[in-house]
């Protein structure tokens, strides 16, 4: 299992929908919901970058 350095969670206005982004010692990005801390999404730096850039462009707005 990874030893993960977590960032402060990003929470919605209600405060219950929180996402945390962290990274393993080798730089591997990892995401989780704070209500389900054992369920991890492991990706690559490029994958995380692509997700963030798509969100910035509004490409994911239809999911909200």
TL;DR of this structure?
With 64 residues, this protein is of the alpha+beta class. The chain has one helix spanning 45-57; strands at residues 4-6, 10-11, 18-24, 29-33, 41-42.
Mind sketching the topology for me?
Elements: E1 4-6, E2 10-11, E3 18-24, E4 29-33, E5 41-42, H1 45-57
Description:
The chain has one domain. The chain has 1 helix and 5 strands, in the order βββββα. Strands 1, 2, 3, 4 and 5 form a 5-stranded antiparallel sheet that branches. The longest helix has 13 residues. The chain is flat. The mean pLDDT is 90.
Class of secondary structure makeup = alpha+beta
- Strand content range: 25-35%
The largest sheet is:
5 strands, antiparallel
State the oligomer: single chain
Number of helices: 1
Percent helix, as a range, is 10-25%
Quickly count the domains.
1
**On the 0-100 scale, what is the average pLDDT?**
90
> How many extended strands?
5
Radius of gyration: 12 Å
Low-confidence stretches: none
Distance between the termini: 32 Å
Inertia-based shape: flat
- Tell me the series of helices and strands, N- to C-terminal: EEEEEH
